[in-house]
Amino acid sequence: MKHLTEKTRTFVETASIEERIEATRKFKWIGYTNAAQILKKMEDCLNYPKSIRMPNLLIVGDSNNGKTALLTKFDQSHLAYIDEKTDKLINPVLMIQAPPEPDEKRFYNAILEKLFAPTRTSEKIDSRQSRVKNLLKHLEVKAIVIDEIHHVLAGSPSKQRLFLNVLKHLSNELQIPLICAGTKLAFNAIQSDSQLANRFEPRILPRWTNNTEYKRLLLSFSMVLPLKKESSLVEGSIANKILTYSDGLIGEISKILELSTILAIESGAEHITNSIIENIDYIPPTQRKKAFYN
Ligand SMILES: Nc1ncnc2c1ncn2[C@@H]1O[C@H](COP(=O)(O)OP(=O)(O)O)[C@@H](O)[C@H]1O
Ligand SMILES: [Mg+2]
Q: Which end of the chain is more exposed for a tag (fewer CB within 10 A), N or C?
């Protein structure tokens, strides 16, 4: 089983079929060049000295193409800890999900809830805002990560402006970089404000295309899929099939591989072939809408 990483090989050698299926369903982070570069950028933001012009980051990509996975990876490598000297709780990275609509109160609530601070519906915006600021200072938060930022940048131009100001205010006042992720909608909204456009560096997670990076991604996946035989995923026809079905989205690529691996385990084939992929119970995203409207 030379095709597997050492860890996966050891696991496959001893695990039962059920255990292997369970492991296949579990999320495993797969690194790729663009992700590594964006993670490095995030680290740079985190370590940037406080200044009146903090660099912010906007990760842009279609839904299901790895934004949340990337933010979570970063968040998890900067978990909260207790400073032994002072016994104080330090939380270097604060990750939240933007509320589903541009509502400033709910935005502050998302932060307060994440920090287990009490929230009261009657509390005025200003008071929430100042509590947020105090807490962030107290916990020595060095970067705020906001997922689904397009939610709060949607809506009428005046609502958009309001939220752009909320973001500007937070980043200016606290001198903490904002690391955001969202769809193209967020990118367009931020571009509409020249001050923010200058301070938000966009990083794109493009859809996957048939190139060396894609082949590398497949290879990395194949090394951790718990199969006894080698699957030649990078072989032209299989790579193409996965790409066409997935519509270039990493979420779909990983779903196809998950279902194929399980079928390969259950059928005893023990490796992924064209015929395995053709037999999984999977509807490609491009066909989902059609299936619904027919
Ligand atoms: N680096 C990665 N390694 C492995 N799987 C990934 C990776 N990035 C994304 N995925 C898969 O794609 C799915 C969708 O990713 P997600 O980050 O939720 O997309 P988005 O936030 O852009 O909608 C994840 O649930 C996971 O299965
Ligand atoms: Mg997401």
A: C
